Automatic annotation (TrEMBL):
The lineage of its organism: Bacteria, Bacillati, Actinomycetota, Actinomycetes, Micrococcales. This is 3-methyladenine DNA glycosylase. Residues 289-308 are annotated as: Disordered. It comes from the Bacteria.
Amino acid sequence: MPDRPVLDAAEWRARAAAHAERANALTAGHRARRSRRETHPVEDFLFTYYSYRPSQLRRWHPGAGVTLADAPERRGWRWYSAGAAPDSAVVDARAFDVDKPELARLVERMLRRTAARPGQFGCFGLHEWAMVYRTPEHRHSVPLRLGQAATDAVVEAHELRCTHFDAFRFFTPDAVPRNRTALRRESQPSLEQPGCLHAGMDVYKWAMKLGPLVPGELLLDAFELAADIRRLDMSAAPYDLSAWGVVPVPIETPEGKAEYVRQQRGFAERANTLRARILNAWRGFAADAQPTGSHDRHGAHAGAAAPI
């Protein structure tokens, strides 16, 4: 890993304050709704599905190997250690590897392999349609935009090409055999690809799991990407979300498909850029580079116990 900087107290405390202010702005709507015991089917997803609290987003970290001057309080924080100078603290990537070896291998493998694969852009967001296919019980308590029969017809008129297990596992029983591939948890590192919207949202999850090894600014960039992707995900879904101001991307039409793919390609590029930035901040190499010591040789372990 290349030499990492030492941040003086004024600099890192200013960055931490700016980070908290940005995080507060990003989570303001969710926090206000929570205080009123209200929910939003689109915007609250990142806090319910991933279960990370706004307070976790507000906490700034400098990234792996970065030393904070005049930070004695952080020496006791998880995955920090004492720096060379008195009262300094450094984010210790080795401590993370020792404490969470399987997670470290999994995250590295998911980030590198997903970025290295070509994106697939023919799914058209039909995973959400497959979750309501031929069933009166729906995950979201909102009406279907086209009604049940027409929604089912859209599914039947297309080949389901979902590559993301955490979407596939919510398919209805009738939708499961319609998917091109029978997905399994253990095969996720071998199938994830950058065109998938949910793989793009998961960049935020991987960044959060790495904790202080990821610079706070990068974590919030990943959160913003996940929020933007979620909006397209629900705009292309079969639900009528007009009450929440969601304008549909009608993927049952040629125009809707074209718009979906246009945005999907942009999100794939953004997600791969973030994957490379995370790997560089953490390991000191780009997403398409082979790490020193080749963590990927542990692939049998990396795919075994995915802490999703």
